[in-house]
Amino acid sequence: MLQYFMEKPENIPPEELWQAYDIHHFAWLAALALVGILLVRWFCHCDHDRQTRILKVFAVLIVCQEIVKDILHYVAGTLEWEHMPLHICGISIFFTLWYAFRPGKLNGAYVYGMSITGALCALLFPNWTEFPVYHFSAINSFTIHAWLIIFGLMALCSGRLKPDIRQIPKLTLIMIALAIPMHFVNEALGTNFMFISTPSPGSPLMPLYGLFGNGYVAAALVLMVLVWIVLFLPWEIARRRKEKQQAS
Length: 248
Known about the structure:
Helix 7 (about 205-210) packs across helix 8 (about 215-245). The protein starts with about 20 loop residues before the first helix and ends with a helix. It is built from 8 helices and no strands. By secondary structure, the chain is mainly α. The radius of gyration is 19 Å and the shape is globular.
């Protein structure tokens, strides 16, 4: 089993692979959900200063895991351009670090609207089924996406992160600003960062690709904004109710 721990996909026999929504997938999701619940509950019972330290340490550890991942791939001779943190969740690592040390409305909105939702989609629709479930890439992918979700939920459930619907236009501009140069990076390196060329196989974006082809990115951005409105709206309603109560 360990002989395939760092092996390239083309050298791994099919019988060693797993599939989305099989027993291995659900076991990983259940284990990570349990860890997440325990960590978020513990975090919420900590005082404010300790929470601040925890977020900083957690964010740094996520960055360290990303660095160690690339080092191990380099040593194993399996490092590729696709390993660069230029997918949505890879970029989320740096927004997480930014929020941990300089929390604000914009990076908080990104953590809520992109880090949590993007990482959750990655766990529900994984694109690392080309590796055995015990493969380093699978273990790293499961865990680092879970850490992004847990970090965001820690800040959210403790009340430190308050999603602001007024940040949606800025979030949209950020995604456009990231997508444009990433298109040229993909063209130069033959990569598919941010899934600009094609969506992740098995993801909910596949029907959009079937309908719009290469124009699916614009449709995906519109869909993303609609999802953000749904996600941010309850917080906006609660904020207005609170303001109304305070004014009365």
